[in-house]
Design a protein that fits this description.
Layout: H1 5-9, H2 11-20, H3 36-46, H4 48-55, E1 66-70, H5 76-94, E2 103-108, H6 118-133, H7 146-158, E3 163-168, E4 174-175, E5 178-179, E6 193-200, H8 205-209, H9 216-231, E7 235-238, H10 244-263
Parallel strand pairs: 1-6, 1-7, 2-3, 3-6
Antiparallel strand pairs: 4-5
Helix pairs in contact: 6-7
């Protein structure tokens, strides 16, 4: 029995709890300002293969990831968590007897101690794919084999249904030796596999080069990942800050229940 059996068995709950704390009306004191244009971009990206099949256009032979980027604390995790809730609800309404909704996998790097290790990510994802699609495939016990086995494993799963993979905080992924960048991530994916990544934007290059940032090595790692994303020509959505009116609405929405409770 692997040493990480116990933590692996509850890992899904840890990621779900992390997401739930960032969902409006999710039972926590959370107010979320919806950015409809970002939601629309994410939904359109995930449904692109369906639109191609319906309008008769030639389907793409492969899919490349979509990246959500922005400064630390701007709300990337909250955007993804709230979008997933809406996307799952819309998918359930749209699904038919002949076509099931997509398998959605959420992985937030940093929600647990093991969540930042690439081998743990692969093993968790492959186990959930195997269970959901009832795959008769063995998962190698050797961690160093997982990156090699993953593309073929995903290709087999994708033949059984649509898949949406969300990896939040991709810049935190590491192995036992430290940073791994994007070497573990395939260049492209099967056409009905949609991958969404989030990345914390690095400090400006001049600040990194002159040592003005607090965590220079960490910022250099983010910068290398950003350069690799651009080299791969993956689409990047920059998450902008909220406008003044949106900020004021958040404050009002947060204060009103507490004021009402106090006045009872």
């Amino acid at each position: 029995m692997r040493n990480d059996f116990c933590i692996t068995s509850i890992e899904g709950d840890l990621h779900a709890t992390f997401a739930r704390a960032r969902i409006a009306d999710g039972g926590a004191d959370c107010i979320f300002a919806h950015q409809e244009h970002v939601f629309s971009e994410l939904t359109s990206f995930c449904e692109s293969s369906i639109k191609e099949s319906k309008d008769g256009s030639i389907p793409s032979s492969f899919s490349i990831p979509l990246v959500l980027s922005g400064p630390s604390g701007i709300g990337k995790s909250a955007v993804l968590a709230n979008w997933i809730v809406r996307f799952e609800a819309e998918s359930k309404r749209a699904q038919s007897i002949m076509e099931a909704g997509p398998f959605i996998f959420w992985h937030c790097c940093g929600s647990s101690r093991n969540s930042t290790y690439v081998s743990h990510l692969f093993r968790r994802l492959m186990k959930e794919l195997k269970k959901h699609f009832e795959l008769n495939i063995q998962i190698d016990e050797r961690d160093d084999r997982l990156p090699w086995d993953f593309p073929r494993f995903l290709e087999i799963a994708a033949k059984k249904g649509r898949i949406v993979l969300i990896i939040d905080g991709v810049h935190r992924i590491q192995n036992e030796d430290g940073e791994v960048g994007l070497k573990w991530l395939p260049l492209n994916f099967p056409p009905n596999v949609k991958v969404i990544l989030s990345l914390t934007s690095p400090s400006k290059e001049e600040k990194i080069s002159t040592g003005q940032c607090v965590h220079k090595e960490r910022e250099e790692g983010k910068l290398r990942i950003l350069h690799e994303l651009k080299r791969r020509n993956w689409r990047i959505i920059e998450l902008a800050g909220l406008e003044k009116g949106q900020c004021e609405k958040i404050i009002d929405d947060f204060r009103m229940p507490h004021i009402a409770k106090k006045n009872k």
